[in-house]
Amino acid sequence: MSENSSQALSTDTQALIRPEFTSPFDEIGRDEWARLAGETQSPLTEEELAAFRGLGEPLDLEEVAEIYLPLSRLINQYAIAARDMHRRTRGFLHRENDRQSPFVIGIAGSVAAGKSTVARILRDLLARWPETPNVQLVTTDGFLYPNAELERRGISHRKGFPESYDRRALLRFVSQVKAGVDEVVAPHYSHLIYDIVPNEVTVVRHPDILIVEGLNVLQPPSMGHPIAVSDLFDFSIYVDARTTDIWRWYRHRFLKLRETAFSNPNSYFRRFADLDDETAISLADDFWTKINEPNLIDNIRPTRARASLVLRKAADHRVHSVLLRKL
Asked: For an engineered disulfide with 109, which of 105, 113, 142, 259 has Cβ 3.0 to 4.6 Å away?
């Protein structure tokens, strides 16, 4: 690992991979990881890639070829192995007619870390492998309680924290998908109105792979929730970076949204569109320090070690190393 990469690792991440500890992860540097794509060529064009970029993320075709193409190839191998194990189990139980259970991937990470971009890229790349043509993506935003319910519970200021989600509904949704239910629906969340949209749903029908993306999808079971949605994942990814970098990315994204989505007359955040830079930065920093950073430190980052794979980003949003859980 290069000196710069070593400095970029936070103290608790170093604890996962220090040689004096028996780590559950193998660390793979960027150059070694990029070689794992083999002779496979990236199928994406620059025009397609533009649709996947998050605000402020300098995603390019090189990043796709060196990071996400090998990742899609690895997950494809896991999915093939899971399908083979399912076939063997059906044979053992003499239930050859049982339907193949979808392969479910969880993607977690902080606000502004880039997990939504990772999810969108993987949805496209995985669908291009012949074994998994039907890949569907659902975000856990749809399982947030409606704003009125958050207000009734007195937790509007905790939106995005674990308690702001209807975890039973999310668990029921993923359980039904895994069970092969013909059609499963998830509530639809609008970032424009900052709320659940009544009578709108996302429909999932027999996917080969389902990607579930959200802040807290790797939360473990608890006394009140003895089964967690993460128990149903076949593979999971945590998108990681230094807190100071994520904070800077969040601030930059907020300023970009002020110029774009916030300017929409129907936007919940329309009142922020005309703020000057100094006031907007101050407000973004206030949201970060009072909401997003505490959620990251207390709830999101502690789940990182539960992931199958950790993507470690440098200050420029590019992945500099990968931690892969040992089998």
From this structure: 113
